[in-house]
Amino acid sequence: MRGLLGAGINRMNIYTVRQATEGLASFMDTLDEQTRNRGVAISFDSRYHSAEFAHEAARVLGAHKIKSYVFDDIRPTPELSLPFVISIPMPGL
């Protein structure tokens, strides 16, 4: 997710991150157990609040009992694609 930081539903903030992640979690709830158990890869970069947003997304997924794999430090966007390249299909945020 990217966008201008600020209050409101058309800006990047903790609430819009939670809402978008709830949407992903609701979709994943419709998937078969094997697919759901793969979890979600979450990366963040050097932008303001990126790490905070990544960890908040992981908390939302955790509330749905969905595993999340959060990178331990900032990464370039293409690096999030690595799980797909090595054939571990899972959603990425």
From TrEMBL:
Q: What is this protein called?
A: Phosphoglucosamine mutase
Q: Where is the Alpha-D-phosphohexomutase alpha/beta/alpha domain?
A: 7-81
Q: Which Gene3D superfamilies match?
A: Alpha-D-Glucose-1,6-Bisphosphate, subunit A, domain 3
- Pfam families from the UniProt entry: PGM_PMM_I
Question: Which GO molecular-function terms appear in the entry?
Answer: metal ion binding; phosphoglucosamine mutase activity; phosphopentomutase activity
Query: Acyltransferase: present as a keyword of the record?
Result: no
Which classification does the entry list for the species?
A: Bacteria, Bacillati, Bacillota, Bacilli, Lactobacillales
Q: Which family does it belong to?
A: Belongs to the phosphohexose mutase family.
Q: What is its EC number?
A: 5.4.2.10
For this UniProt record, the keywords arranged alphabetically read as follows: Isomerase, Magnesium, Metal-binding
What is the top EC class of this enzyme, as a single word?
A: isomerase
Q: Has keyword Isomerase?
A: yes
Instruction: Provide the GO biological process annotations.
Output: carbohydrate metabolic process; purine ribonucleoside salvage
